[in-house]
Amino acid sequence: MIKPDGVQRGLVGEIISRFERRGLKLVAIKVESPSKEHLEKHYSDLASKPFFPSLIKYMTSGPVVAMVWEGRGAASLGRQLLGQTNPTASAPGTIRGDFCIDMGSNLIHGSDSQESAQKEIDLWFPNGVTEYQLDSAKWVYE
Ligand code: DAT
Ligand code: MG
């Protein structure tokens, strides 16, 4: 999910293109201004953290772009593309390492496992995703 700062800074295309060129397949995408309640559900595992209120405020500060990307090991590949939670610890070449500085404006969310991805897909895309054959897959996978 591209967070409100990523949308406002015009980084949607840049970010999508990084996932695309890695070989992942886009199966769902939408622009949305999610409610506070929706984001509290999304980040429910962090509800007891001191930064939770400011995280929810940040995430409701503008529209986000929610996406589902498929591919072999997609969740862990996605996390590699993102970089570390703290942008200042993120290597150049990663999204956070290239485009941001503060943890409270770190541009993008990525599911941290296959299990959390499934939970988040159910929350953000209750009507499911669009399955199709990506023709370029034969050039990406052995
Ligand atoms: P990530 O977004 O890398 O999966 P996370 O799930 O641990 O990181 O936390 C969700 C978001 O909450 C993160 O992108 C930024 C914010 N956050 C995490 N740890 C924080 C901290 N120690 N101080 C302030 N904000 C924090
Ligand atoms: Mg996380």
Question: Which features characterize this protein?
Answer:
single chain; 142 residues; alpha+beta; Alpha-Beta Plaits; two-stranded antiparallel sheet; 8 helices; 42% helix; globular; binds 2'-deoxyadenosine-5'-diphosphate; binds magnesium ion
Detailed description of the structure:
The protein is α+β, with helices and mostly antiparallel strands and 142 residues long. Helix content is 42%, strand content 11%. The protein has 8 helices and 2 strands. It is globular and about 45 Å long. The longest helix has 11 residues. The chain has one domain: Nucleoside diphosphate kinase-like domain (Alpha-Beta Plaits). The structure holds 2'-deoxyadenosine-5'-diphosphate and magnesium ion (MG). The site of 2'-deoxyadenosine-5'-diphosphate (DAT) has 9 residues, from loops. Belongs to the NDK family.
The portion of residues assigned to helices is 40-55%
Order of helices and strands: HHEHHEHHHH
Oligomerization state? single chain
Structural class: alpha+beta
Taking the sheet with the most strands, its summary is:
2 strands, antiparallel
Ligand inventory: 2'-deoxyadenosine-5'-diphosphate, magnesium ion
Low-confidence stretches: none
Instruction: Provide the CATH architecture.
Output: 2-Layer Sandwich
Task: Figure out the total of helices.
Answer: 8
Instruction: Bin the strand percentage.
Output: 5-15%
* Total separate domains: 1
CATH class: Alpha Beta
| CATH homology superfamily | Nucleoside diphosphate kinase-like domain
Q: According to CATH, what is the topology?
A: Alpha-Beta Plaits
Mean pLDDT: 98
Shape: globular
| Total number of strands | 2
State the strand order across the main sheet: 1-2
GO biological process, one term: UTP biosynthetic process
Domain Nucleoside diphosphate kinase-like: 1-132
Cofactor: Mg(2+)
Active site: 109 (pros-phosphohistidine intermediate)
